[in-house]
Amino acid sequence: MSLRYLGIVTCCTSMLISPSMLQAADTALQSFAGSAVSQQKISDLALHADGTVYGQVFDVNGNGARGVAVSISHNGRAVAETSTDVQGRFAIANLRPGVHEVTVGQSHSLYSFWAPGTAPPTAPRGISVAVTPDLIVRGQNCGFWTRERVAMMLIGIGAVIAIGFTNGDDQDEPSS
Question: Is the pTM of this model over 0.70?
Answer without folding.
Answer: no
